[in-house]
Write a structure and sequence with these properties.
Number of helices of chain B: 8
Helix content of chain B: 25-40%
Shape of chain A: globular
Helix content of chain A: 10-25%
Oligomer: heterodimer
Strand content of chain B: 25-35%
Bound molecules: adenosine-5'-diphosphate, magnesium ion
CATH architecture of chain B: 3-Layer(aba) Sandwich
Number of domains of chain A: 2
Number of strands of chain A: 21
Largest sheet of chain B: 6 strands, mixed
Strand order of the largest sheet of chain B: 6-9-10-3-11-12
Distance between the termini of chain B: 30 Å
């Protein structure tokens, strides 16, 4: 087994070999961002349960493995990919296999006016000013060692720029699929949504194969004045995969951001969702669902920073935990002194389907302004016995009756997703996990 | 149809049913009356298979099958229907979802083809008119935000769709105004056939003006202490339960 220090050294060595594959790109100004990140990475330590933010999340299983950065595209049976793809006629589709863009499975022809989509490595060359201006802007302040590691290896992922006033009707689907082959993939997304623009983006993370892998992922959103964003994140990794993600969102004046963070897969999962109001009159809705079984461990840490007045945040995270699986929810809402007329609502609700499932939940409100409306709460319970009896007394089999109740519990997280295909897909995935 | 022999049942170690004997044949309507807390709902729930109650003695045969060995859902599929005294609200589950799953599960159990969406809708609409419910109810969540009367009518509507062999109506009349009572009673009467049977649990006689029972039983303190024909219900209405209870005490 590695010590945490040896593991850091391993990743730093891997960074050096990664650098060597970059050839001329090393001389681009962007590369300095990577070099800064690896420097920060080496100065930080991997978190342990002694860190308040990782109190319940023991990452030793991850630290005991050596994952090598993916270096090629493997063969994929199209069925693994098609399972997750929506109708290409109705969605703009990008598929990445082991982090590499797959032209074969993607369809980004004929983009609507006002929409730029490129892979990150293309964007570094084609849009250096935008990339340099925004890349890592939302993540750099923290001491998030995994985000730094992602930045150091940043080369694969998606750059989306929605220009001023562009309303993009077709949703954008980005699928990251990984062959479980003891590899590290570091998908990186930068989504710039300009003033008055509107866009819907779905990110899906999935895998196939029997071995393990590590998805270390970062998505940054800049949501400008009056922009409207609907963001769905579907995590259905293999059950022996590690998945650590950071979603970082800056919300400017009167913008509107809706997030759906849906988790089905992974053996050890940690999602960080950080949103910040940089302007007034903006709205942020964070919806989350985690459905776990076996010995899965899923941790969602969210924070909403009301730095400006007159904003609304509404957060609802729900968990359905079976077998010996564990869930962690930690939700922080900060209402700064200036942020008068804030509305902030936060709920975490959990259903335990077995006696051995555990959830640790900590909703936190820190309020420094006085003229605000805020509420928060958490519940942990079982399926309602009276409801279950009622359904069975009507002739419905126990397993189906449970599935009906669980779906009802989950449905208010996903019912406001505007895309029918996405809702149907989530319903099918949920049924697959439950039945 | 159903034969209950010396049935004893506990909850939390406390005996509630203390030796019930009751036989209901097809085509019959039986009324079970008695003061609050006698064990009427307990009997209904035990027949439907509620696991909170522990049956300590006795047996229940349903068309020759040992009912106590069957799961709740198997009992329903065999043709037992309980109209609940307090129908539970199930937010997020539409009445359509409930009925479609229930009906198809029962049909599957009986080796019948499942209904497709069109056949289902046609059937459901026909049955709705029976209890004068409007179609928008189908999309609403089960019992959520329903008035007391709507909940009871919804129970009878479900019964109409599922067509049980034995229906147990637990205080379906309580909380109903006179119009709703008439609607519910009409629905039940129309569903009656020589092939099925009904147990009406009530502590008022007024429902029995509409659904005329062949037998009336008084349940008190976990036992049936008196049985008679429909005139017994009228007598109870008139004189209350005390005389029956005293009469029974003298016999002991
Ligand atoms: N779930 C329960 N837990 C504890 N006691 C119960 C429960 N259900 C019924 N009882 C008790 O059993 C007795 C009979 O109740 P019930 O069957 O509801 O009577 P009835 O329907 O005739 O009014 C009462 O004393 C009641 O308090
Ligand atoms: Mg009762």
């Amino acid at each position: 087994m590695n010590s945490s220090v040896e593991l850091k050294e391993m990743y730093i060595k891997q960074f050096q070999s990664f650098e060597n594959t970059l050839n001329g790109e090393k001389s681009l100004p962007f590369h300095q961002i990577r070099k800064d990140a690896i420097k920060k990475f080496s100065a930080l330590n991997f978190p342990s349960v002694k860190d308040e933010e990782w109190k319940y999340t023991n990452i030793n299983p991850l630290l005991s493995k050596e994952f090598k950065p993916a270096d090629s595209i493997p063969e994929v049976d199209p069925q693994f990919i098609n399972k997750y793809l929506f109708d290409k006629k109705e969605f703009i589709t990008l598929v990445f296999i082991n982090g590499y863009f797959s032209k074969e499975f993607s369809d980004v022809d004929a983009l609507p006016k006002g929409l730029v989509i490129e892979t990150i490595c293309q964007a570094i060359k084609n849009h250096p000013d935008l990339v340099l201006r925004y890349f890592s802007k939302t993540t750099s302040s923290g001491n998030n060692i995994f985000a730094e590691l992602n930045t150091a290896f940043a080369n694969h992922g998606t750059f989306v720029h929605v220009e001023d006033n562009a309303v993009i009707e077709k949703p954008i689907q980005i699928l990251y699929i990984t062959k479980a082959d003891d590899i590290l993939v570091s998908p990186r997304n930068l989504f710039l949504v300009s003033k008055n623009a509107q866009v819907k983006i779905i990110e899906t993370y999935a895998g196939f194969g029997d071995r393990s892998y590590f998805t270390n992922q970062v998505t940054e959103f800049i949501v400008n004045d009056n922009a409207v964003v609907e963001h769905v994140r579907i995590q259905d990794e293999q059950l022996n995969a590690f998945h650590i993600s950071t979603l970082s969102v800056d919300l400017e004046k009167a913008s509107n951001f809706s997030s759906y963070n849906i988790n089905f897969g992974g053996s050890l999962v940690r999602n960080n969702v950080n949103t910040k109001f940089n302007g007034g009159f903006a709205e942020c809705r964070l919806n989350g669902l985690y459905v776990t079984q076996g010995s899965q461990f899923v941790d969602n840490h969210t924070s909403i920073d009301h730095a400006k007045p007159n904003c609304l945040s509404n957060e609802l995270y729900k968990g359905i935990l079976n077998d010996t699986s564990r869930g962690v929810f930690n939700g922080k809402v900060f209402v700064r002194q200036d942020a008068q007329k804030t509305n902030a609502y936060q709920q975490n609700k959990n259903i335990l389907l077995s006696n051995d499932a555990i959830v640790n939940t900590k909703p936190q409100l820190e309020i420094f302004a006085d003229d605000v409306k805020c509420s928060h709460g958490a519940t942990v319970g079982q399926l309602d016995k009276d409801q279950l009896f009622y359904l069975k007394a009507r002739g419905i089999q126990e397993k189906e009756a449970k599935a009906i109740l669980i779906y009802a519990f989950a449905s208010d997280v996903v019912h406001s997703i505007s895309m029918t295909q996405v809702r149907d897909h989530l319903e099918a995935l949920l049924a697959e996990k439950l039945l | 149809m159903i034969e209950i022999k010396n049935l004893h049942a506990n909850i939390d170690g406390r005996e509630i049913l203390k030796g019930i004997n009751l036989t209901v044949n097809k085509g019959e309507v039986h009324a079970i009356m008695g003061p609050n807390g006698s064990g009427k709902s307990t009997l209904a729930q035990v027949i439907a298979g509620r696991e909170d109650y522990e049956v300590t003695q006795g047996e229940i045969l349903f068309n020759g099958k040992n009912l106590l060995e069957l799961s709740t859902e198997a009992r329903a599929c065999e043709g037992i229907f309980l109209a609940f005294q307090y129908p539970v609200e199930i937010p997020g589950v539409s009445n359509t979802t409930l009925l479609k799953n229930a009906l198809n599960s029962i049909r599957k159990y009986r080796g019948e083809e499942e209904l497709d969406a069109m056949e289902f809708l046609t059937l459901v609409k026909k049955k709705m008119s029976l209890v004068e419910l409007s179609e928008d109810l189908l999309r609403r969540s089960v019992n959520e935000g329903f008035s007391g009367g709507e909940k009871k009518r919804n129970e009878i509507f479900q019964m109409a769709v599922l067509q049980p062999k034995l229906a147990i109506l637990d205080e379906t009349d309580s909380g109903l105004d006179i119009d709703a009572l008439r609607i519910v009673a009409n629905g039940v009467t129309k569903l009656k056939s020589p092939e099925n049977a009904t147990i009406v649990v009530t502590h008022y006689q007024r429902l029995l003006n509409y659904i005329v029972p062949d037998f009336v039983h008084v349940l008190y303190n976990g036992k049936i202490i008196k049985s008679g024909d429909k005139s017994l219900a009228l007598e109870l209405e008139d004189k209350g339960y005390d005389w029956v209870i005293e009469e029974a005490a003298e016999l002991v």
